[in-house]
């Protein structure tokens, strides 16, 4: 196949409408993104943003259709129909969205580019004369690409449903078609010589002359394959969780053109995408099931807390009853003390003792309550204190044990408002009285005056 072309390339301005379309799409995308930047957007059913719920590790498929342009094609349009400036384009693809701001995918796109030549004034000086030409090339584009969501620069935007993707990648174009032409050819034979018969030919009548005219058609096939680098701008709007519509602009730069392939392809496409995610009804069902589960857990926790509160109230009631009984006992003892003091009988000695456990210097809760009650009525009087220990055990140890018991009682009395000079004498006698049982494990407090 002869790849040398005699026709000049189409001027760069032949793709001006494609460039204007891309500029308008870029401007619209920038305007819409600016309107969608402010405000917060989150899924009303969950705390997860819409974009993160729909575009995190999800697959999607899409179909697309629209128009395509091919620029700088070697076959020049001459008096062609306007429909030859653009061609239909259809295709589809599959994407995997890793995060709301990046996705990868594969795409297939079919289209064609056409050129037509209609000569209104054929040049009859050169034979054969081309009177019509048609050039049609079908191309199949397959590519792998990566896209980035421009709108994720504003993660807290109000319009979570709107996304503007820009992308690139690498593709391969399979191109195949044919060039069809119609030619007129006029010849004349005179004096045994055949020459083309054009507009500048003169004929004399001195010899025999043969004029021949014919029409010839040609249909030559072409095919070639080229790598290309695509750039895309894709504005998408989520109609629902599963369906997304969009407008897409794409320009493909062909590598190693070789003088026969176009310089680039330009596409203006509409897209419909299906996202493989749970439907809104399933999301709502999961959400409310989760809410019901949380409410059930809360009810169970409240029931358990109520049961514990009832048990605690029962224990407190028992303790309160016990304390009231002890208080009644103390009131009885106090009444006895007051009666003794009012009688001023020299035979009655007001006293109180604090009982200790075996080998212990700590005051129990009951004994501490009795001691404080006694102290509240004896405050302002002088008291004598004698501390003892029972006979079991070494003598020296028992002496120290009685001293610790003495210090513990004195400390409580001081805290209850007694002055140090009111607590005298203070004596720790250990096991001197030789008491082997509980009577030897006491601190006895007596009223001096």
From TrEMBL:
Signal peptide as annotated in the record: 1-36
Assigned keywords, A-Z: Signal
Basic and acidic residues bias spans: 305-327
Stretches for region Disordered: 305-329
Protein name as it appears in the record: OmpA family protein
């Amino acid at each position: 196949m002869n790849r040398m072309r005699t026709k000049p390339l189409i001027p760069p301005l032949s793709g001006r409408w494609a460039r204007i379309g891309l500029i308008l799409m870029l401007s619209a995308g920038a305007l819409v993104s600016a309107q969608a930047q402010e405000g917060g957007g989150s899924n009303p059913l969950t705390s997860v943003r819409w974009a993160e719920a729909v575009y995190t590790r999800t697959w999607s498929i899409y179909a697309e259709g629209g128009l395509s342009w091919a620029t700088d094609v070697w076959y020049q349009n001459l008096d062609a129909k306007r429909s030859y400036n653009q061609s239909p384009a259809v295709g589809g693809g599959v994407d995997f969205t890793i995060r709301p701001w990046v996705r990868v995918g594969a795409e297939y796109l079919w289209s064609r580019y056409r050129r037509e030549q209609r000569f209104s004034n054929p040049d009859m000086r050169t034979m054969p004369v081309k009177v019509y030409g048609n050039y049609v090339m079908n191309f199949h584009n397959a590519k792998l690409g990566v896209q980035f969501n421009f709108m994720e620069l504003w993660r807290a935007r109000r319009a979570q449903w709107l996304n503007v993707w820009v992308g690139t990648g690498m593709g391969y174009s399979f191109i195949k078609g044919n060039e069809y032409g119609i030619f007129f050819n006029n010849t004349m034979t005179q004096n045994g010589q055949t020459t083309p018969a054009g507009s500048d030919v003169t004929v004399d009548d001195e010899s025999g002359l043969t004029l021949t005219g014919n029409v010839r058609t040609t249909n030559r096939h072409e095919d070639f394959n080229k790598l290309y680098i695509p750039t895309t701008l894709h504005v998408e709007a989520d109609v629902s969780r599963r369906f997304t519509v969009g407008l897409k602009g794409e320009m493909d730069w062909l590598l190693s053109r070789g003088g026969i392939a176009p310089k680039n392809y330009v596409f203006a496409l509409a897209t419909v995408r299906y996202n493989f995610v749970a439907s809104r009804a399933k999301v709502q069902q999961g959400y409310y099931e989760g809410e019901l589960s949380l409410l059930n857990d809360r009810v169970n926790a409240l029931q358990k807390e109520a049961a514990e509160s009832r048990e605690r109230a029962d224990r407190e009631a028992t303790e309160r009853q016990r304390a009231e009984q002890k208080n009644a006992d103390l009131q009885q003892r106090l009444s006895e003390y007051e009666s003794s003091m009012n009688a001023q009988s020299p035979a009655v000695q007001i006293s109180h003792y604090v009982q200790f456990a075996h080998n212990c210097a700590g005051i129990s809760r009951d004994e501490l309550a009795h001691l404080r009650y006694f102290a509240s009525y004896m405050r302002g009087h002088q008291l004598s204190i004698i501390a003892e220990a029972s006979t079991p055990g070494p003598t020296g140890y028992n002496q120290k044990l009685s001293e610790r018991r003495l210090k513990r009682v004195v400390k409580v009395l001081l805290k209850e408002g007694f002055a140090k000079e009111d607590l005298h004498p203070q004596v720790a006698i250990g096991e001197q009285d030789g008491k082997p049982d509980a009577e030897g494990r006491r601190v006895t407090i007596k009223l001096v005056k």
